[in-house]
TrEMBL record:
Keywords: Transport. Belongs to the membrane fusion protein (MFP) (TC 8.A.1) family. This is Efflux RND transporter periplasmic adaptor subunit. Residues 87-223 form the CzcB-like barrel-sandwich hybrid domain. It comes from Novosphingobium album (ex Liu et al. 2023). NCBIfam families: RND_mfp. Residues 304-364 form the CzcB-like C-terminal circularly permuted SH3-like domain. It holds the Pfam family CzcB_C.
Amino acid sequence: MSRRTMLFSGAAALVLLLAGLWWLSAPPGGSSIPAAQGAAGPESGVLAVDARRAAQMGIRLAPAGAAEEAPLATIPAMIQPPANARVAVAATFPGTVLRTLVVEGDSVRRGQPLAVIASRDVLTIGADLSRAHARSGVAQANAARLSQLSREGIIAGARADEANAIAAEARADVSEKSRILAMVNGHGGSGSYKLTAPIAGRITSAAIQAGNPVDGTTAPYVIDAADRYEVVGQLPERLIGQVRPGMSVRLLPDLTGRIVAVGSTIDPATRSASLKAEIPAGPGVVAGRATSIVIAGPAPAGAVSVPDAAITMIDGKSMIFVAERGGFAIRPVTSGGTSNGRTVLLSGVRPGEQIVVSGTSALKALATAQ
């Protein structure tokens, strides 16, 4: 065999050997799948999803915000008006109800008429006022005449001074009776007066009907101030010392108030202490209604606040999807409490990281399929 033939045979054998090695190392199907089209293995903890596919899955991102407060506990409570925010409106003079102008549940402004009362006392004051006006007119005319005579030297000055004093007394009598009628919104001619609201608020009691008698010993109306309320609850023994005045409370869904007092004595029957917080008015805030409040304290360092929808359960554990280059990382998280549609996370996410807040179900299905 010639040297040329031997070289040609060796080259052919080398080509066949390389082709066999390539065939053995090639993946089934003849081509590899780009990482962006599939999912990384469980050992990587990252789902590889490109931007186009993320848009098809309805994925929406939002930054994880640093948490300032974390829920400590939810306790039952009772809504009530503050001690200085409930006013009983009593009848100033006894009489008979002619007409009621508001009913229980109505909102009223300060000075708004509530009812019209017919009263003999008001009629008497009106008559006294008319007589006082008449006496005052006569006294002033007499004082003016005697003062003129005194200046002309016809009478002694003492008589003019006495007449002026009587006229001043008559004017004071008119002023006093006028003030009384104005104070009760009375009308002396008709012998009636109006009960009016001393504060702005809501009528919480209206024990009054047209035709019924009223007197100063009962309060036909009770008004609660409409801009502020209190909630009173029982603080569990384990939280005594942790909860302090000034900390915030939340009345679901979205009313926020402040703790104003925490009791220092533990009730031996309930093993709890009293707690009082101020809350603003809002939908569903009615004195006497039972409710529950969420007590919030300072959040631990590094805690973040995320929407409840961002958290999903995988294999019985709380997980969250965090955006990373080329996909989404699956991270276990530790919850520090939930309130008002948001959850405080103590671990697993750093403030400012982009998390998935919509489309978590699609990512969960993709993760569990791997």
